[in-house]
Amino acid sequence: CETCSKEEAKYRCPRCMKYSCSLLCVKKHKLLQSCNGIRDKTAFVSVNEFTDLNLLSDYRFLEDVGRTADAAARHPIVHSPSAKKLLYYLRNRARKCNIDLRTLPVGFTKRRENSTTYNDTEKKFYWHLKLVFPHCHAEYILKRVPDDKVLADILKPYIDPVESDPVICQRLKMYTASPQSDVQILMKIENRRQNSVRYNELDASRSLLDNLKGKVIIEYPTLFVVLRTLKNDMVVLGQ
What positions does the domain HIT-type occupy (predicted)? Predict the structure, then answer.
């Protein structure tokens, strides 16, 4: 027993794998180790130790996740009149700003992720925004980005050599080492044929709202930050 070190162990904790000899020691070990005794279904298992039981456990875990997600999608609050009213309100406000905002049906990932809101007092959108840096295979999610914020200021915490976070700066080293004039911000043009994908180039010196005007947005904007000097497959409209 790893708790009292006196008696022969009879039980093994499913979570931390500690051996215990009795119910008293089990309770004591939970108290001392702050252990809840529930097996961690997502714990790392090395390839050498991976067995059919681990495979079955993973399969059942994925089934549980699927059932939970399906139940959440069917929850009455998702289909409530208030939720539909909020979506209609957002689309209507976007239309007044000359933005064609479109929402996806319940169950789609982008529909669940979207946290975009409109502040009626300030008369502005607070956007859910995704930044994609293809050259470094990095993605970042930003929440509550005001529509009057300039794109260059939005990118500063990521690619500015001085103001960016040290961890992010290291990951996006290719961008921070390049001059700002090489940075290009693109947004995919929606409702085009699959074999004719094109992108709009956005103006980094203008606000998010100015850049979104006249464009189709599905749920929330996704901005691709690329470097002009590096080859990529993104074709800008007009090229």
Answer: 1-35
